[in-house]
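Two proteins were folded this term; both appear here.
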Amino acid sequence: MKTAWSVAAGIALVGAGAVAILAPFLGALFALWLFGWICVAVGVLELGYGLSAREEPGAIWRFLISTLYLGIGAFLLFRPVDSLAPIALSLGALLVSRCAFLVLLALDMRPQPIWGWFVFDAATSGALGVLVLSGWPHDSARLLGLYVGAAMIANGVNRLVVAGMLSPRLKALQLRRQHSTSGA
């Protein structure tokens, strides 16, 4: 049953990712809309916590943090086109920074056989970061939409592959359980 949900989610993610790649501006706007609502939700939760703990030390900082989340969320929701360039710049900087940290992690892991995967991940992150930054700001919407679409497709394919790998194992486990309960 859980495998069916994973397959359905995988198919939906691949389909949505394909739409985001075919219409990257819409993919970028959807990502900003979703991120905007997440920021608003976190801002409301932080504000609620800050109000409930207003007698505790640091209450002003909790209030300012909630204001920051609410402000960024509102900006993303009400000015999505204006927020494309700053988000793309942040994403590019994040990916390039991630590349540097993954290289350092790979060097720490070097005696182990898995270290090469960290180098591969670093190279991929670095290349994507440079791609996003090289197109900033004029290609921000297109690159952000393509990134979101590619990430959704990769996530969807991952779900489908994992579901395919788990399905035979789950069936074998169910058969073993049935066999052990019928024999007892």
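Next, the second protein.
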Amino acid sequence: MKGVSGGERKRTSIGVELITDPELIFLDEPTTGMDSFTALSIMELLGGLAKEQARTVITTIHQPSSDIFEMMDLLVLLAKGKIIYFNQADKSVNYFGSIGFQCPELSNPCDFFMSMMSIESIENDQANETGNLLQDRARIEAIYLETIALFVTKYHESELCCDHTIKHELCWPLEADYGKGQYTGFCYQFNLLAKRNFANIVRLPQTSYVKLLTTVLTASFASILFWNTAQTKYGVQNVQGALFFITMNVSFNAIQNVILIFPDERPVFLREVNNNMYRCTPYFWAKVLSELPFSIITPTVFGLIVYYTVGLAPEALTLIRFIILLILTYNASSGYSLIISAAFSDKQLAVTLTPVLIIPFMLFAGFFVATSSIPIYMIEFEYLSIFKYAYTALLHNQFDFLCPEGSANNNATTYNCFGKHCNGNVTYPGAVATESNTTYYFYACCSYPTNQAGSCTPFSQIAGSWPNLYGAMVMLAAIYGGCYLLSWLILVRLSSTYD
């Protein structure tokens, strides 16, 4: 985040860890990147937690000031992975003085200890004596190892040596589920997490602008390509292409918005859940709620732009069903991609596998291959394909109104093109205009007798009469709910096994 310094990030991360009021606090260099005053303030706060609230604070610290050193209760010094001192901090200076390593007066003990334990100090001493550091490298390594061995030996021989196998009288074993208790209910957690998610959206408006701009540009491209499709047999083909392009674009737009964002949130979610900040369930559904407005706005904007520019059926009810279908398709695709991004911890792997796991389902939509040609052993992929149900529903939504109940050729594959919304001047061979006061929405290819009009079958690629419009909508809603339920279960499982 711009405008936030390293010290502010560090303090924020410490504050986040203190939200759950832990009894044991591990900190890795909490004062790094801070000025001396801020570092002292942080350590005073941690010292207050230890002394006043009986919290155990364990921290590694890099070059603390003498004031911070005086606040420490216990000090552990490690060199080459071995303990050379572990006891009260205020006894450390006298201890090292007693074994021949006296800290100079008016010096920071921590700086002295760091110099004493580092090989660089020996290198500097040898360079000053011989002036040839490279030639004495092996000897320097030997001297350093001997020094560390001396520290270890002296420590184990001293009275200050602590036996780590001895348990303090105030210590007790922790249960397996220790620290897993929750102090707030589902609604409270859900409310706070939803507010946080909405606040993140407001703070980063650029992401929303890019989503809308991409949607408008893609819809404009589709409008130009399929502008006002002609009412001919080629027009039927163009409408089919337009509907499949709309299905594909809405799906991949949703997939991209999830697969590029959630993998970055995944480790933060797992860390916070395992730190007992909130449960998985309120987090998940708060995230779904916060993303719902854009999951409705994005496909709606796209649908309103392309609907009339492509020249789809001019009915209000048909337009409403069209928008609902795009929203269902968008959200079902989001749920599918959420499963992928939740299952894989590596963002690059999730992005790489997404086309492999999604594009094959496009082949079963009924646009590239007739559904009757799909081998029986691959039929399961057809019934799991979001593209199949979305494309089939859009075809029914566009063409079903051309064949009202009672029409001569009212079936799943042939249309007589004499329904409402037709243009009345029927001049094509085989066309018979009835109902003198009715205007006809007329596709030229449909005017031919059915035994000559193979092109007058917008559903020729889709075998059978199921699913119809509402059946396909129900299947999209079922996939939408099923994908989100499965992704929720994956996150629950991950949160319980995350290390």
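Strands lie at 24-28, 56-60, 74-79, 82-88. The CA atoms of residues 223 and 433 lie 32 Å apart. These notes refer to the second protein only.
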